[in-house]
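Input (structure):
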């Protein structure tokens, strides 16, 4: 059984998704609210609880590169968060290109008729689902080749 966690790391929230036990589909489970952009202790503690609860074996973290493939401030913060996650959980953390996930998540919510003021409540969790699903699909393709 493998359980992989997908994370969409933002300045105010962290969207969390986990795979099913077979590692085929991603489900959104939670949005961890961050009280301050510089304080990550509570955020890391909550992610650690979820890792234990869901028996996670690997973490996929969204990597917000710029559209021209360069690494900006958000991506630097994500790399720092990756190191913290690895130290806290002892699990491997894979960086996954997330450039279009928030766009796709917003489009899905719009198509689903979710009102604008409610969209921000779901977009990070849905982005985490897209990040994780993209990773799961790529593993599936790789194993079939």
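Output (sequence):
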């Amino acid at each position: 059984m493998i359980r992989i966690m997908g994370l969409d790391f933002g300045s105010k929230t962290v969207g969390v998704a986990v795979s099913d036990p077979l590692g085929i589909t991603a489900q959104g489970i939670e949005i961890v609210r961050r009280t301050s952009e510089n304080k990550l202790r509570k955020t890391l503690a909550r992610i650690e609880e979820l890792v234990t609860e869901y028996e996670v074996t690997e973490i996929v973290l969204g990597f917000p590169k710029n559209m021209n493939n360069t690494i900006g401030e958000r991506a630097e913060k994500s790399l720092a968060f990756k190191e913290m996650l690895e130290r806290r959980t002892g699990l491997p953390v894979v960086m996954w290109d997330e450039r279009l996930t928030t766009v796709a998540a917003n489009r899905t919510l719009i198509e689903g008729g979710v009102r604008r003021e409610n969209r921000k409540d779901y977009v990070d969790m849905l982005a985490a689902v897209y990040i994780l699903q993209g990773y799961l699909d790529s593993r599936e393709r790789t194993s079939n080749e």
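Notes: The longest helix spans residues 116-144. The CA atoms of residues 136 and 142 lie 10 Å apart.
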